[in-house]
Amino acid sequence: MTGRKIAAVGCMVAGVAVALGAFAAHGLKAQLTPYELSIVEKGVQYQFWHALALIGLGLWQDVAPKRSLVVASCFIGVGILCFSCSLYGLALTDWRWLWPITPLGGTSFLIGWGIAAWSLWRKA
């Protein structure tokens, strides 16, 4: 995957985060408890920040192509899906089986950040 595609995916994921945040704040506020709303907000925050990470990794990949940057991007993408999407599901449904998926997403984030740091460290 090229750096531009990674950055483009990051832009789309950021846009979805903005839309979900607005929908939660305006469309779901009356339907969700304050606790459920805070879960959605946490998912949106992590999705947005990691979308920015994808944009940065994609731009970095374009300047200094490395397979490890693509791998880091994949782990961060999986983290967004597992962490943020499981939080959305937990807040909006009674699917309690999603709880174990959330920490898998957090672990995927950590692995992605670790690979990105290792890639930068090796470059220095």
UniProtKB/TrEMBL annotation:
Domain of life (superkingdom): Bacteria
CC per GO annotation: plasma membrane
Keyword Transport: no
Subcellular location: Membrane
Keywords from the named record: Membrane, Transmembrane, Transmembrane helix
Keyword Aminoacyl-tRNA synthetase recorded: no
Residues that span the membrane, as ranges: 46-63, 70-91, 97-121
Major location (coarse): membrane
One family name in Pfam for this protein: DUF423
Record's bilayer topology term: Multi-pass membrane protein
Family: Belongs to the UPF0382 family.
UniProt-recorded name of the protein: DUF423 domain-containing protein
Organism (species): Enterovibrio coralii
